[in-house]
Design brief:
Two copies of one chain form a homodimer.
Chain A: H1 14-24, H2 30-41, H3 43-48, H4 51-58, H5 62-71, H6 77-88, H7 95-104, H8 111-133, H9 136-148, E1 152-156, H10 161-174, E2 178-181, H11 188-193, E3 200-204, H12 211-222, E4 227-231, E5 243-247, E6 252-253, E7 256-257, H13 260-279
Parallel strand pairs in A: 1-2, 1-3, 3-4, 4-5
Antiparallel strand pairs in A: 6-7
The structure holds a DNA duplex.
DNA sequence: TCGATGTCGGAATATTCATTCCATAGAGGC
DNA sequence: GCCTCTATGGAATGAATATTCCGACATCGA
């Protein structure tokens, strides 16, 4: 045997591979076609199973799976399986969305198109996961807590600063007294030293947690000021002793995390506080 | 050894296990707690990885993973891993769960639930409309324009300030020189007077346009500095003579407009500029 | 009918994997 | 300060896995 009839590099994303399997199915030997049919119909099993278990379900020999992978240019079965696994992984899930959105735009595969589509998708998935995770009771609790406060302190730095600065703007428009901490001025510790248990604070921080945010949040919380926290893990050092916390996981693209979920939650809280005040 | 301290049957679904890991974390030995944190943060890696690969990423020994699984009552690591895999397996069951949980959200029909759902939907619709409107060529053009600039000035106020402040942060991380205009300091006109035609600026503003943003943008543009504009109408007074503009229409809920689309576009531009610079 | 080419099944193999075991380090009680 | 029990790292082990290899069979053309 010289080489495979397929010298081209194998597809690295699931949908390209799927299309390739469909189109080449009729020219494939009997058993390999059998594998193609099974793989298209049961991608999840291919992702999780072992060569032996998949072979049994597809009614072929394990060696056939290896041949199948090699016929498509992969190094071996494991190499092919990785593509099926990536499909289910969070980071790259739902290639169909990416592909269709790419196709809907005229220019094909430019770097910009990928970036744009990637960030849009990250935003959409972040909001989707927010919907699943957040309980309405948490919002009610946080809104009630904040509505009682005389002053609301907003603590957020770096990536979280856009969120707190938006809240600061919105609270201002709604006539809710709030103080934004973490801007350029260096007198934040002093500002926070005025907080009392009759006030409240909102702290927002994600991995890697900005040390100043941590310090401020702890300090203020131990002084008895209740805290509403938005963070990305139940193990976050920001979890308050007194107050409510939200777990928000933002999808990322190329290492840049979305802000859409945090923003949507921030807007909800802001307006909910204003509503609660009006009702009281 | 008689038996594990945990005689109860181990959880068979992911979310029960996750809750258990969260609640038991503080009573767990150091390395096991380390595993719990990693597993909660990276459930996908646990689902697909091998004991060795996961152990490396979590910075523990493979044997620790086995001990961890046994501490929770599982027979071994593979037994525990199956729970993580089931989470990703047939997503049809996941979808039905999500739907029912959604219904319970809506069923409450409390004010908070309506707010929350409204802002999530606004975010999703905004991103959707962004996808349709923006042309990849515009992004390329804007990125090229910004990549050539010595300094990038960021102009945005009120509702747009969170967007420019995010760009300022991201540009900083990417090593792109930028100056944020519109913060608390009052010397913005001076700052902008240093801009030359070899620089560039990004201006963001929506109806009703903040007058300062308009003034700054016009001034700088007439002095020959090219401008990238994000605004909400082709008739916006911000449309530059020299430069590129994007039309971004944010959906609103109860008068509060989303920021998700602007944010996604801002992230795209930021990274595109950095990529363009790296390529040059 | 006879090779030639390509396909397949199944055993053999080498690798990778989860698990177990043991020595050591550390924490806590007396 | 000594002893005990737990926690941990790391090597050893045996099982399971992907892959390779070879013989057998089928298909096709001459």
């Amino acid at each position: 045997m010289t080489l495979d009839d397929n010298d081209a590099l194998p597809p690295r994303d699931f949908w390209s591979l799927r299309n390739l399997m469909v189109s080449r199915k009729d020219t494939l030997p009997k058993r390999l076609a059998q594998v193609a049919i099974y793989a298209v119909a049961n991608p999840d099993d291919v992702a999780f199973g072992t060569a032996a278990s998949i072979a049994e379900k597809a009614e072929v020999q394990p060696s056939t799976l290896v041949r199948f992978a090699q016929a498509f240019g992969y190094q071996g079965f494991s190499d092919l399986q990785a593509v099926f696994q990536d499909r289910l992984r969070d980071r790259t899930s739902n290639y169909s969305e990416r592909l269709s959105s790419l196709r809907s735009h005229v220019a094909g595969d430019s770097k910009s198109a990928t970036l744009f589509s990637g960030f849009c998708k990250a935003a959409e998935r972040s909001v989707g996961s927010l919907r699943e995770r957040v309980q309405v009771e948490q919002i009610d609790e946080a809104a009630a807590l904040l509505a009682k406060a005389e002053t609301i302190y907003l603590i957020g730095q770096r990536r979280s600063f856009p969120v707190t600065s938006y809240m600061s703007y919105a609270f201002g428009k709604l006539g809710v007294k709030s103080i934004l901490v973490g801007s350029a001025q260096g007198n934040d510790p002093e500002t926070l030293s005025f907080a009392t248990p009759r006030d409240a604070a909102i702290a927002i921080s994600f991995t890697p947690y900005a040390s100043a945010t941590l310090t401020y949040a702890r300090q203020i919380n131990e002084a008895g000021t209740p805290l509403v926290v938005i963070t990305d893990s139940p193990f976050s050092p920001l979890i308050p002793k007194l107050g409510v916390w939200f777990e928000v996981v933002e999808a990322d693209f190329e290492g840049f995390r979305s802000l859409s979920a945090s923003m949507a939650l921030a807007m909800t809280l802001t307006v909910a506080v204003a509503e609660a005040r009006r009702g009281a």
